[in-house]
Amino acid sequence: MPAGGITFHGVCKTFSGRGKTIEALRDFTLSCPSGSFTAIIGPSGCGKSTAMRVALGLEGADKGAVLIEDREPLDATRAGLTGVAFQDAALLPWRSVRENVEVPLEVLKKKVRDFAPDVQHLIELVGLKGYENALPGELSGGMRQRVAIARALVTRPRVLFMDEPFGALDQILRRQMNFELQRIWQESQATAFLVTHGIDEAVFLADRIAVMSANPGRLAVVIDVPFERPRKPELFSDPAFHALCDKVAEVLHGGQ
Amino acid sequence: MAGSKQWAVPLRNIAILLLIWEVVGRLDLIADGALPGISEILIGLWNDRSDYPLHVWETLKASGLGFVIGNLLGVVAGVFFVLIPMSLRVFRGLNIAIFALPPIAIAPILSLTLSGLTPRVVLAALGCYFVTMTATVIGLSQSDSRAADLIRVYGGGNWLIMRMVQFRSALPSILSGLRVAAPNAVLGAILAEFGGGGRWGLGAYLLGSLGRAEPERLWGIGVVATLIAGLAYGVFALMSHRFVGASRAVTMNMSVPEKAGDGSSSPVSSLLAGAMAVLLPFLFWWAFIRLLEVPAMISKTPIGVVEYLFFSPAAQSAQERLIAALWETLPITGVGLVCGLSFAFALAISSRLFPGFLRAFMPVALVTQTMPLVALTPLLVLLLGRGTSLTLWVTISVTFFPAFVILAQGISMVPRATRELAMAYGASAWQELRIITVPASMPYLFAATRLTVPRALLGVMIAEWLATGKGLGNLLNQSRGYMDYGMIWTVAALSVILAVVFYQLVVVVERRVLQRMGMSTAE
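ok -> structure tokens follow
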């Protein structure tokens, strides 16, 4: 059934290291409807990042398949349908903010000049107006992460992948960035796929939370998040918010 | 303020050193005037001023050309090895051979088979190739793997990653490779001038001045050679300093670098690669001779050498001479290496206790890195005579300084928090050394050993050739005089094989020990 968004169908992936084999994903099935925001959470080594890497075509699946907007991963990435922000900003240190945002355009062989207004708009959207020509080394951690978000959005992706994009930030900055990410994502209307360690981050941002368990990495349960959008920072102190966080934590720690 | 002070201390120390040198030299206190005062050396330089331009020009021409060719090859090979990881294994034997070969051993071969400027250019290029190739491979493969993922996610291939990420981020590493390669090119050219005859070039000038009782001239040549090498080093040091600023990674890349073909290739193909690695150097040797079409009498293929050494009428005498020479060369190489390394280790470790000493000594140690050691030997002959102690001191001095630089820099990289942890529990400076600094410096001790093993052999052979009249170096020199081509090729091949075997031994021990200690090798 053509549904758009992201669908994982029975994906298996095993890594063999020195004499050991690690089952990173076993029969992983999940579908993220078009335009939805899915957070994926689980203990270290449960295969969350692997799921994302398979979806991006960085790793091949041993079994099963992933479809992005009803296309093969490599097909979709080459068509510029995806945007990605990694765990760490991964900026090229010798390129300015603007040039870093333009990297995906260059790889996709687009005329960078045609996108100049888009790039400028994105830099403003993530609140970096005035820093267009700064080098990453001159920015703070939060600012670098925002460059990475702008870069992920520059191709106007249909699907946006994020692997702990705020993992390196402190709690205060992180909440601020969560709030901004919601705004940016709503404006982009893309399907979002967020890999995270932070329970509150997942509950605040996502429509649905996919909880995973480790050894072997598999999907434990999917929890729906009912809160209205746009969600406000006050939500962080709402009792209902905490109740849902506790529920996610229970599934995580109970290892159900 | 702090910046100017940093410069002032070493400058002051160097000034004091020069002053002592001048006084001692003027008063002829050392070895009956074998160490002239600085002013005397300068006067000597002025008196010989008409000789220098042509000699210097010849050396510059050969080393400059060799520098360009060797580095081009190095960068191209480095890119190739990174794009096709398997090839790194196939070429491993050849790469180690090029790194470890004592240039003095193949200088006579090159001048037998090539003509004109070519042997000098080839030897200079060989001195550059390995350094730059390694720097390129390390620089390219240490580039940010997350940035490479980013390019791949948008459908970019290996070539695009190379162009957009890896090459640019490898630039500082490549430039620092060029920095080390520059003095190597000068050394290679001078060694070839030495072993190849010819009228012009600093090496030829040095050789011609050896027999004369003019210490000022030998020192003058040494100073000029060091200046050329030092200037070349300085230019690239400055360039790499400028570049490093923009491309230092903003955050630490924590992902484990992928090992080339680790576990992914079948045992058959890795066996094949290993066999190729051993065979390739010999194939190159054979192809070199075939392509040049040198008469068979002068040039020996690998088979020719085996024939000469085992089946020819002269085989028995050749074997005896070779074994006698080995017995003279090997022990002193070992002793010199161990002494040089131990001095370096002791000094680097104790410099931890006296940081002021390190700051004062490091610039001196760095200057000696650019000093062409062939120019150093005649000076040591002047000071020490032509006995065994000369060989020992040459060997120690060529191993000590590079080992010290690696060790001191390695030890300075031990994280401060680790040391402070020991201090926080009231450890004395000695305890801290024993528990933390010494074990932490093991990777650098091995790296230093790997680097200096071939240098030790080279140092011994140069001393034997120039001064003591013993061992492999002398056998090579003598065979040149007797036109005993079989022996020239045999000694050259044997010394390259010895250097490779020693190197490989160190690598094996290093892997075992570091694996047990849970550490990884230092580059």
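The mean pLDDT of chain A is 87.
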